[in-house]
Amino acid sequence: MVRHTPHRPGFSCIADLSRHRRVIGEAANEPHAQMGTRGRRMLGWSLVAAALFAARLGGAQELGTAPFLPESERVTVPFRLAAEGDVPPIDTGSRTEVVAAFHASYLPSEGVATGWNGNASTCVLGVNSAAHEQATLRRVNYFRAMAGLPGVVGLDEIRSDKCVKAAMMMSAQGQLSHAPGISWACYSADGAEAAGKSNIALGAEGPSAVDLYMDDHGPGNHFVGHRRWILYPPQQVMGTGSVPTHSGKAAANALWVLANFGPRPSGPEFIAWPPPGYFPHQLLPKLSTRWSFSLPNADFGPATVSVSRNGQALTTAVQSRSDAGFGDNTFVWTVAGVPSLAPAADTDYVVSITHVSVGGQTRSFTYTVTVIDPFQPNLDLRQTGGQLTLAWPTGPAGFLVQTGAFNGTSISWGTAGYSPTASGSERRVTLTPSEAIQLFRLRRP
C-alpha cells in the first residue's frame, strides 16, 4: 500500500515495516534508510543515477534574440484553443510528483520525429506530423507547469503552418533573423511574419528547441527573452514549425509566442526559473547558467541576489534587471559552480533576492530549489527473521550499500560498503542489523 502526503524540499521516502506500507515523511538533510530501536524502520536513498541523461544542447545550435512586443501592443482575448498537449499541475513541493511528471510529460515528448516531408534545398515546404506538434506543445506546457503556471497553452494550426515556412527559411539560409528579407532562400511573406513573432532556433527542432529557448544561452540573450515568453503567464495559444537536419541543411524551429494572450492567471505571484521546490537536474540552464525571477511591474534596479548551497555562498553575476518588452519584468543572474552532472544526493540551493520595488514598497524573496536526479532507483527494505535485505532494480549498476548511525546530533557514515549480488531483476544486500547499524544508503564508490 502506498500513501502520498504533501511534500516539500527536505522530505524523502520512508518505509514503515511495522505496517508493511510506504509513507511519506520528513527526513534529515540527506535521504537515507533508518532502523530504530522500537521496530520502526525508515527507508530513503542518496545516489547517482546509473546513466547520465544525454545532453541535447550542444553542437551548432544557435539562438537569435527573442521577439520584442511592448506591453501596449499586447492583445488579450477571453478564450483558448483545446490542446492535446496539456500538462496537469505539478506540485514541485512533492518529490514524487515532480519525478512522475518528468517521466509522464517530459520524457514522452523526447525524440518524436518531425514527420516533415519537404526539402529546404529546393524550397519544397512539407508539413510536420501532428504528433511532433503536440510533443513540442507538451514540452512548453511541461515547463509552464513546473513554474507553477497552467500547462494549457493551445496550438494554432494557422500559425503553425506559417512557422514551418519560417523554419524552412532559417534552414535554407543557414541564419536566424526576426526580419528576413525577400532575398532569403525560400522566402515567403507568411514565413517572414512568423519569424517576427516567434522564438527561432537553428540546429534544433521541436521539443529540443524548447529546451534551448528555456536555457536561453548566447551573448544577446542575457535578458532570457525566449524563456520569458514561454513562461509569460497570459500565454494561451502558440504555433510551432520544425525542419529536421537534411541534405546538408541544419534543423530549425519557429515557436510563435506573440499571439493573442489570455487573462493573467491568479497565481503564482512570481515566476522563477529554476522554480522553488524539487527540480530535475536535466532542466538546469547549463549552457547559459542564467537563473531568472519575473514579477510584473517590479523595479529590479536596486535588487541584489545571493545563492547558497549547503550554507556556502556561490558566485553570482547580475545579467539583466528589467528589459520590458519580453514578457514580465525580470531579474536575471548567472550562478557559478552548479554541477552539470546528476547530483549524488538531493541538493538545496537557497535563493535570496532583496530590494525589489513593487508598488512603492521594498520587498525581499527567499526560496529553495532542490536539484534532484529523477532516475534514482528505489531502495526497498525487507526483514525476514533476524536478517535485513536491501534491494533495488538491476538497471542501475555500480552502487554499494553504505551503513551509518545517528548519534543524536548528526549522522556518521561508514567508509566501507556492501557489494550486492544479482537475483533475478534485483540487486540485493543482506545483513544482520544492530544498534551500531541504523542507517542505509546507496552510494557509488
**With helices defined by DSSP (H or I, 4 residues minimum), what is the helix count?**
6
Biggest sheet features: 5 strands, antiparallel
The helix content is 10-25%
User: Tell me, what's the shape?
Assistant: globular
CATH H level of the largest domain: which superfamily? CAP
**What is the number of independent domains?**
3
Give the averaged pLDDT, no decimals: 82
Q: Which structural class matches the secondary elements?
A: alpha+beta
Main sheet: strand order: 4-3-25-21-22
Distance between the termini: 33 Å
Percentage of residues in DSSP E strands: 25-35%
Counting DSSP E segments of at least 2 residues, the number of strands comes to 25
Any idea what the radius of gyration is? Answer: 24 Å
The fold-level CATH name of the largest domain is Pathogenesis-related Protein p14a
* Poorly predicted regions: 1-59, 74-82
Question: Can you characterise this structure?
Answer:
The chain is α+β, with helices and mostly antiparallel strands and 445 residues long. It has three domains: 195 residues, Pathogenesis-related Protein p14a, CATH 3.40.33.10; 102 residues, Immunoglobulin-like, CATH 2.60.40; 64 residues, no CATH class. Helix content is 16%, strand content 30%. It is built from six helices and 25 strands. The chain has a five-stranded antiparallel β-sheet, with no helix packed on it. Helix 1 packs antiparallel against helix 2, helix 2 runs parallel beside helix 5 and helix 3 packs across helix 4. The longest helix has 17 residues. The N terminus is likely disordered.
